[in-house]
Amino acid sequence: MAVSIKSAREIALMRESGRILAEVHARLGEEIKPGISTYDINKIGEEIIRSYGCTPSFLNYNGYPASICVSVNDEVVHGIPNRKHIIYEGDIVSLDAGVIYKGYHSDAARTHGVGRISREAQDLIDATKQSFYEGIKMARAGNHLHDISKAIDSYISRFGYGIVRDLVGHGVGAKLHEDPQIPNFAQRRRGIRLRAGMTLAIEPMINLGGWEVEWLEDDWTVVTADGSWSAHYENTILITDGEPEILTLL
Q1: 22: which residues sit within 8 A by CB, 6+ positions away?
Q2: Is the pLDDT of residue 246 over 90?
Q3: How far apart are CA 182 and CA 172, in angstroms?
Q4: CA-closest candidate to residue 208, choices 111, 94, 117, 128
Q5: Cα dist. 200→18, 39, 124 in Å?
Q6: How many other CB atoms are there within 10 angstroms of residue 160's CB atom?
Q7: How far is CA 67 from CA 29, 45, 129, in A?
């Protein structure tokens, strides 16, 4: 496994890539309202990304046909935007996006409640987000990669939610997906030792029900096997000699 250690120049570029993506998510979050289609969300998102002089990371990546992954309710990730897919009051919507700035990717996801949502749905969104923060407490040089995985698992397990196992976090940089893979559930082995200069996309995907998922016929959209709702929270982080730096937050 070859995990890249970013130079000072690369880190500066990734900081800017991350800052721009944070802006994209902030602006997109303001657009999530009842009546909007997932197609419109994607269109607005791509326009925002290009307005910063960046390229969407996801568009045509391995054939994915859109710039923003828009996943609703029981869709875990990689939902394909569609004019006929309308967002309604009470839904939850996960937006996963990436930008390329001067050759460097950033990757982040947020789950939004649409209007008034159930307490159950809000608790899921909140726990998924907090599990990311529990995980990155361990994202320090000298710790091991799977210390992050264990911390996420330990936090989520108290709620009885399902932690998606078929999809994991990853390294990110000059490529959208780099080594290492980063599971969100506890591992038997500790994994590689973390070093300053590593850039990682940590992304818990948490289901109200079981952890099992299925792929729809479009070969992209991942849904929960039991029809339960799912939330997703992700940031690109930089491992430093101290606290990790979150690159995709304003």
Answers
A1: 108, 248, 249, 250
A2: yes
A3: 11
A4: 128
A5: 12, 29, 23
A6: 8
A7: 15, 7, 23
Prior bond of 183 cis (ω within 30°): no
Amino acid at 11: I
Cβ count near 214 (within 10 Å): 12
Q: What is the CATH number of domain 8-198+229-241?
A: 3.90.230.10
Tokens coding 69: 């992954």
- The rounded distance, in Å, linking the Cα atoms of 224 and 222 is 7
Measured CA distances, 196 to 8, 74, 216, 243 (Å)? 11, 37, 39, 10
pTM greater than 0.70: yes
If you search the block for the tokens 């939850």, which residue do you land on?
92
- What whole-number distance in Å separates Cα of residue 74 and Cα of residue 96? 15
**Closest CA relative to residue 201, chosen from 155, 230, 243, 167:** 167
Written as six digits, the tokens of 113 are 């409640």
The amino acid at residue 81 is: P
Q: Convert the pLDDT of each residue in 183-213 to its tens digit.
A: 999 999 999 999 999 999 999 999 999 999 9
DSSP 201: E
State how far Cα 206 lies from the chain centre.
11
Whether residue 152 contacts residue 233, with contact meaning beta carbons closer than 8 Å, is answered with no
DSSP letter, residue 212: -
